[in-house]
Amino acid sequence: MKLLENVNLDCLSELIHTLSLTTGSCRLQLKLESYSCKMTGDDKKLLRHITNSSEDTGLQALSPPNLGYGYHSPTVTGQEQDACSTRTFHCLVSTLNASFRPDYDFSNAKSEEFCRIPNLNTVTEDIHNIFYTSLGDSFCDIKEHLWNTIDKEISLQECSFYSYNSDLDSDPYGDCLWYFNFFFYNKKMKRILFFSCQAHPYGDNMSDDGDEDMYYSGTDMGSSDIEY
């Protein structure tokens, strides 16, 4: 996986983080990162590890989604189990490794620790509820900009959507108040956009200051045909 530089995604992450410091109920730590799915040497080793660690039938079992912030449980009784291809599962794990290394290694993650989100509306509704609760009315000012920026990078209507179910013990989400993460996977573009957010109480390693208005500079705030 190769990180694709995108200044608009970086600025948007900083903007939401800064809004959380000035108007929010907690401090938000975000990742908005775009990755090429072209495999590196480490990715090829991981794919071999995945195929050798299980009876690879070409499909990997997933857990049903269980949405709502602070959410994600790896098992939900009574729901039909989903699945994805081994290649897709490999891309999800590789994305986590690329985003959180060297502090965390997800190479031994199980496919049941991930879930597929049924559609874009489910993703946007969940994110909107979280950010409205955390940022209040200030989120209204950036909501359209958020999705326009993401859409330009990943073409949302062509994506499938996944999430990682934290075990809250051995991964980066264990020490936060709540979290979410979503993978926007565009198979045609061979690209994944990783959108992760962790909430921390004020005073927890908080050393940021500055004016959030600066982060609008150089970004396109135009409208989009996609409804959010």
The SSE string, one letter per element, is: EHEHEEHEHHEEE
Largest sheet geometry: 6 strands, antiparallel
Oligomer: single chain
Question: How are the strands of the biggest sheet laid out side by side?
Answer: 1-2-8-7-6-5
Low-confidence stretches: 69-79, 206-223
Mean pLDDT: 83
| Distance, first to last CA | 29 Å
Radius of gyration: 17 Å
What helical percentage do the residues reach? Answer: 25-40%
Name the overall outline: globular
Secondary-structure class? alpha+beta
How many E-type strands?
8
How much of the sequence is in beta strands?
15-25%
Q: Helical stretch count?
A: 5
Supply the key terms.
228 residues; 5 helices; 8 strands
Question: What does the model show?
Answer:
This protein is an alpha+beta fold and 228 residues long. Helix content is 31%, strand content 21%. The chain has a six-stranded antiparallel β-sheet with strand order 1-2-8-7-6-5, with helices on both faces. The protein has a two-stranded antiparallel sheet with strand order 3-4. β7 and β8 form a beta hairpin. α2 (41-52) packs across α3. It is globular. The two termini are 29 Å apart. Mean pLDDT is 83; it is low at 69-79 and 206-223.
